[in-house]
Design brief:
Chain A: Its main location: nucleus. The complex is a heterodimer of chains A (293) and B (471). Chain A is an alpha/beta fold and 293 residues long. Chain A is 24% helix and 31% strand. Chain A has 2 domains: 15-71, Vcp-like ATPase, Chain A, domain 2, CATH 3.10.330; 75-234 and 281-290, 3-Layer(aba) Sandwich (Rossmann fold), CATH 3.40.50.150. The longest helix of chain A has 13 residues, at 138-150. By secondary structure, chain B is α/β, with parallel strands linked by helices. Among the domains of chain B are: 84-149, no CATH class; 169-266 and 351-444, Vaccinia Virus protein VP39 (Rossmann fold); 272-341. In chain B, helix 7 links the parallel strand 8 and strand 9. In chain B, helix 3 (116-125) crosses helix 4 (135-149), helix 10 (275-285) crosses helix 13 (315-351) and helix 14 (366-373) runs parallel beside helix 15 (391-403). The chains are: A alpha/beta (293), B alpha/beta (471).
Chain lengths: 293, 471
C-alpha cells in the first residue's frame, strides 16, 4: 500500500479506508494484534484485515459488515482528521488540471493545512516529481510529515515549518507550479515568482473572500503574471430516487363503456433530487501564468 | 539556473512539433510544418519563422502571413493616450455617428500596414464620444478594439488544460460537450496516476485518452477500448507526447469483449502458413466498419485477376503484376500479424481482470459499456462515467445497485463560473456555461459473498407508502 501505488493485499502497517456506508468512511492504521471499534462492532486487524484483499467485505464482531478499501487521495480527503478547513475533490480536480500537474512536476504549496490537497498533488507528480510544502503551524507541519511517512509518500515531499509570506518556499527557480491557500496570498506572490522556474510556470491562489481575490490579482499583475483568471466551481450531487406520483381521478369519461379499466392510482418514476442543502461556496480560484523571465 | 543554450533546448519550438496557436481565448492545435499554410482566425499564416524560438513567444502576423516575434511593448497598457474622461453616460447617445472612420477607412489603414495599436489610436481620435466616456468605459473600449485589431499569435506547448479548453471552445460536438472542469473531475475521481493500468473508452476525439496518458507520464499501461474499425486518436496526437509514451498505449476492439469475458478469445496463430485464418480475424475485426471498407481485401484482388487475364499475352507485365500482388499480400500479412500481436498484448493485460481504473466518456449508451467493462477492474478501484445526459447515468446507477459490487456511487455535475476581477469592478462574467455534462463515479468491491445484492444500509430510502390506498 502506498498513496501513489496500488497493491492487492492488505499488509501490516498499511493505512486502509474502512467504508461504513454512504458518506461514512474512516481511515485505519493496520497493526498486528490491534482492534478498531466501529458502529458495527470491532475489527480485529490480524484476522480480519492482514492478508485480505483490498475491497473485501469484513464482518465485524456485532455481525454487521464493512468494506475495506485501498486508500486514494480522494478517500483520504473525505476521511482525514481535520486540523484546518480543507480543500475538497471538486476544487482539487480543477487545481490539478489548471496547474498542469503531471508525473515529474515540481510543486510548491502553502499552507499545508491538513494535507488534503498535498496528497492529491503527490499522487499526480509521482514517481519523479516533488512537492515542497510550507506550513507555519509547527504541530500541523509535524503531523502532516508523519502522515506522509505512514502513507509512504515521504520520498516525494519536503515539509517546511516557516511563514511563506516572510521566508518563501525555501527553494528558488525549481517549481513548475505554485499553490497558495493562505490568508494574505498577495504577500506571498513575490516568493511564488521566485520559486517558479525561470522559463515560467503556473500559479493558483485559493481564497474564500472576494476582497482577497481582488488584492491577489492586483499583486499578480504587478509582478508580471499573465493569463490571470478567477473561477469558482461547485459540485452538484444528484440523489437517485424512485418517486411515486399520484394520478388525479377525474371520474369516468362520458361515452366510455362500463368495462373501461380504471387507470392506476399512481406512477413510479426514477429521477434525481438535489440535496436539501449543499456547499454553496468554498473559495475562489485565481490562476495565472508566470512568463519566462 | 544556468542560462545556456542547452538548458533552453527543450523549450524551443522544433520542426514537426505539435503546438497550440493562441490569440485571446482562441486556441488551435497544429503541427509545425515548414512552408505549410495554416488558417488561424480566417488568416493564412506560415509557421516557418517560429522554429528555434521559445515556447510561449508571441508573434506578430506581418504581410504574406509571415510571423515575427512581437517586440516588447514599452508600456503596453497605457501606450494609448487617454486625455480626458467623463463622469457618467448621461450625454452619450447611441446614434451610430460617433465614429467618423468608416469600414473602408479602417481597411485602408490596415493596408497601409498600421499596427493594431496605431489603428486603435486612430479610432479613439476619430470617436466623438470617447472623451466623454468614463475611465472604466474607455478601458473597456480599448480592450474590445485591441481584441479586434491586434494581429498576434502565441505559440504554446500543448497540455491537457489547453487542449481541453480548445476542444470545448472550438468543437464541443467532437468531445460530446465534455467541459474542461468535468474532464478534470474525471481524472481525479478515477485516481489516474503513474504506474497504474487504466481502461479508457471514449469517443471524444482522443482528448480523454490523451489526458489520461499525460497524467500517467509514460508509466503503466492504458488500454483503449475502441468501437468500430480502429481507435480514434486525433486528440492524442495533439499532445505531442514523446515516443516512449506510446509504448504504454494498448488497444482492444469492443467487439471482442464478450469473447474475452467468456474466455473464448483466441489470439494465437494456429498455423502461420494458413492465411485464411488471418483474414478471418481481420474480417471479424472489421465487422463494425462500413460495408465498402469491410470487403476491402476481395474486390481489389478480383479486379487484379481480371486485369491479369486481359494481359495474358504480355508475360513481362503479368510477372510484374504478380510480383506486386505478392508484395501487397506480404504487406497485408505483416499488417495482420501486427494487429494480431496488438490484440494479444491487450488481451493479456485484460485477462487478469485486475485493471486499476476505468474511464468512460462516449456517445454510446453508458450502461452496457459500464456493465461490460467494470468486470475487468480489481476490487477497490475507482471508475468514472461521463454522459452528456443525466438519464442514462440514472439507469447505470440503478443497475449497479441491483447487481452489487460497487460502493460510493455518486451522480454529479459541476457548476463553473468565471469572474472579472478589476479594481471596483469585480463581478461574475455575464455569460456562463449552462452545463458541462454528468458524471457517475464509484468504487468496485469484491463480490465473493453470496449475500443479497441489497446492502443493509440502503442508500435510497424506500418510497413512502401511498396514503391513497385507504381510499
Amino acid at each position: 500500500m502506498s498513496f501513489v501505488e496500488y497493491s492487492d493485499l492488505i499488509q501490516d502497517g498499511d493505512v486502509v479506508i474502512v467504508y461504513l456506508g454512504h458518506n461514512s468512511v474512516m481511515p485505519v492504521k493496520v497493526q498486528h494484534g490491534a482492534q478498531t471499534q466501529t458502529r458495527y462492532g470491532a475489527i480485529r486487524h490480524s484476522s480480519d484485515l492482514i492478508g485480505q484483499r483490498y475491497g473485501s467485505k469484513v464482518t465485524c464482531s456485532k455481525g454487521g459488515w464493512v468494506q475495506v478499501m485501498h486508500p486514494t487521495p480522494e478517500l483520504w480527503t473525505v476521511s482525514l482528521p481535520h486540523r484546518t478547513q480543507i480543500l475538497y475533490t471538486t476544487d482539487i480536480s480543477i487545481i490539478t488540471m489548471m496547474l498542469e500537474l503531471k508525473p515529474g512536476s515540481v510543486v510548491c504549496e502553502s499552507g499545508t493545512g491538513s494535507g488534503s490537497l498535498s496528497h492529491a498533488i503527490l499522487r499526480t507528480v509521482a514517481p519523479t516529481g516533488h512537492l515542497h510544502t510550507v506550513e507555519f503551524h509547527e504541530q500541523r507541519a509535524q503531523k502532516v510529515a508523519e502522515e506522509f511517512r505512514e502513507h509512504r509518500v515521504d520520498h516525494l515531499v519536503t515539509v517546511r515549518n516557516q511563514d511563506v509570506c516572510k521566508d518563501g518556499f525555501g527553494v528558488k527557480g525549481v517549481a513548475d507550479a505554485v499553490f497558495l491557500d493562505i490568508p494574505s496570498p498577495w504577500e506571498a506572490v513575490g516568493h511564488a515568482m521566485a520559486a517558479l522556474k525561470k522559463h515560467g510556470g503556473r500559479l493558483c491562489s485559493f481564497s474564500p473572500c472576494i476582497e482577497q481575490v481582488q488584492r491577489t490579482c492586483e499583486a499578480l499583475a504587478d509582478h508580471g503574471f499573465q493569463e490571470i483568471s478567477t473561477v469558482e466551481v461547485l459540485l452538484r450531487v444528484h440523489d437517485v430516487r424512485t418517486v411515486s406520483l399520484p394520478l388525479p381521478d377525474f371520474g369516468p369519461e362520458p361515452g366510455a363503456g362500463e368495462e373501461a379499466v380504471p387507470s392506476p392510482a399512481s406512477v413510479s418514476i426514477k429521477t434525481t433530487t438535489p440535496p436539501r442543502e449543499m456547499p454553496g461556496h468554498t473559495g475562489y480560484l485565481s490562476f495565472a501564468t508566470k512568463p519566462r523571465t | 539556473m544556468a542560462d545556456n543554450e542547452d538548458d533552453d533546448y527543450q523549450y524551443r519550438i522544433k520542426d514537426g512539433d505539435y503546438v497550440v496557436l493562441k490569440r485571446g481565448e482562441i486556441y488551435k492545435a497544429v503541427q509545425i510544418q515548414l512552408r505549410k499554410k495554416v488558417i488561424f482566425e480566417k488568416q493564412w499564416i506560415f509557421l516557418d519563422n517560429v522554429v528555434g524560438h521559445l515556447y510561449s513567444t508571441t508573434f506578430e502576423i506581418v504581410s504574406g502571413g509571415v510571423l515575427q516575434p512581437k517586440k516588447e511593448d514599452k508600456d503596453s497598457e497605457s501606450s494609448t493616450d487617454v486625455k480626458a474622461a467623463g463622469t457618467d453616460n448621461r450625454n452619450i447617445v447611441d446614434d451610430g455617428k460617433s465614429q467618423k472612420l468608416t469600414r473602408d477607412d479602417i481597411e485602408t489603414l490596415k493596408e497601409q500596414g498600421l499596427k493594431g495599436q496605431e489603428i486603435i489610436q486612430q479610432l479613439i481620435e476619430n470617436s466623438s464620444t470617447f472623451s466623454n466616456k468614463t475611465g472604466y468605459a474607455q478601458d473597456k473600449y480599448i480592450k474590445k478594439k485591441k481584441k479586434k485589431y491586434e494581429n498576434t499569435v502565441t505559440i504554446l506547448k500543448p497540455t491537457c488544460r489547453i487542449l481541453a479548453l480548445m476542444y470545448h471552445g472550438r468543437e464541443p460536438g467532437k468531445i460530446c460537450h465534455l467541459r474542461y472542469d468535468t474532464l478534470a473531475q474525471m481524472l481525479t475521481l478515477a485516481n489516474i496516476h503513474a504506474g497504474s493500468k487504466v481502461l479508457v473508452f471514449e469517443t471524444c476525439a482522443g482528448l480523454v485518452l490523451g489526458s489520461v496518458m499525460e497524467r500517467m507520464g509514460g508509466y503503466g499501461s492504458v488500454i483503449q477500448m475502441y468501437p468500430g474499425g480502429g481507435p480514434v486518436r486525433a486528440g492524442v496526437e495533439c499532445f505531442g507526447f514523446p515516443a516512449h509514451f506510446h509504448n504504454m498505449l494498448h488497444e482492444f476492439p469492443i467487439c471482442h469483449i464478450n469473447a474475452m469475458l467468456a474466455g473464448s478469445l483466441d489470439t494465437t496463430v494456429k498455423d502461420p502458413a494458413a492465411d485464411e485464418k488471418h483474414f478471418d480475424v481481420a474480417a471479424e475485426e472489421e465487422q463494425n466498419q462500413p460495408e465498402a471498407e469491410q470487403q476491402q481485401g476481395s474486390p481489389e484482388e478480383q479486379s487484379m485477376e481480371i486485369n491479369a487475364a486481359e494481359d495474358a499475352g504480355q508475360d513481362q507485365e503479368k510477372l510484374e503484376k504478380e510480383k506486386r500482388k505478392e508484395v501487397k499480400a506480404q504487406e497485408k500479412r505483416v499488417k495482420l500479424e501486427e494487429k494480431r500481436r496488438k490484440l494479444a498484448a491487450a488481451a493479456a493485460l485484460l485477462e487478469g481482470r485486475n485493471a486499476d481504473g476505468l474511464v468512460i466518456a462516449s456517445r454510446f449508451h453508458p450502461c452496457p459499456v459500464l456493465l461490460g467493462l467494470i468486470k475487468f477492474l480489481s476490487p477497490s478501484r475507482p471508475f468514472v462515467v461521463y454522459s452528456q445526459y443525466k438519464e442514462p447515468l440514472i439507469e447505470c446507477y440503478t443497475k449497479l445497485k441491483e447487481q452489487g459490487g460497487t460502493v460510493n456511487l455518486r451522480l454529479t455535475d459541476t457548476w463553473l463560473r468565471h469572474y472579472q476581477v478589476l479594481p471596483n469592478r469585480t463581478h461574475p462574467l455575464l455569460l456562463m456555461s449552462g452545463g458541462g455534462g454528468y458524471l457517475l463515479s464509484g468504487t468496485t468491491v469484491a463480490t465473493d459473498h453470496s449475500k443479497p445484492a441489497g446492502s443493509p444500509r440502503a442508500e435510497e430510502p424506500a418510497p413512502k407508502r401511498q396514503k391513497t390506498e385507504k381510499l
